[in-house]
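Reminder to self: tokens first, then the designed residues, so the page reads top to bottom the way the pipeline ran.
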């Protein structure tokens, strides 16, 4: 079966940056299983896997626009330290979920100067080219429930 919209795909993968440093990998873990065509993985990888079969190996370099987007200076902001209530010791590198108008955002503390805290709402991989080395382990048709829910059920997904 070829990978197409509404197929459940299982892959082994290694993700590296342009310097060859491993960012993420399924090596030594369960492979990644996702519902193809439901936006469960980044568009650049999903588009590359379209039409592939079990056993196919693919190497693809995904530019930021087809990955996690471009890095955006507008997503850097300063807030008052008082907004971090209940945090005993605020430190650079800490990550928080912030309630937004349309959806939750994730921010990382990048600088602390007195009462001012600089946070970055860019996704950590925004602006980076992502290099994937992928092997397709399995492809099957999604169940009607998986399609209606927009994600897989069973191992590697929602139970």
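Designed residues (159 positions):
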């Amino acid at each position: 079966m070829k990978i197409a919209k509404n197929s459940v795909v299982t892959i082994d993968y290694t993700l590296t940056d342009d310097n060859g440093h491993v960012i993420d990998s399924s090596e030594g873990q369960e492979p990644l299983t996702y519902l193809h065509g439901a936006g469960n993985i980044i568009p650049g990888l999903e588009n590359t896997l379209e039409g592939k079969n079990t056993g196919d190996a693919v190497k693809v370099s995904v530019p930021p626009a087809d990955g996690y987007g471009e890095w955006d200076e507008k997503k850097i902001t300063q807030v008052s330290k008082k907004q971090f209530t209940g945090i005993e010791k605020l430190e650079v590198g800490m990550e928080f979920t912030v309630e937004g108008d349309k959806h939750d955002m994730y921010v990382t503390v990048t600088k602390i100067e007195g009462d001012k805290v600089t946070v970055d709402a860019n996704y950590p991989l925004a602006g980076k080219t992502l290099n994937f080395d992928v092997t397709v382990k399995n492809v099957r048709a999604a169940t009607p429930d998986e399609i209606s829910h927009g994600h897989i059920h069973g191992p590697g997904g929602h139970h």
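Residues 43-49 form the longest helix (7 residues).
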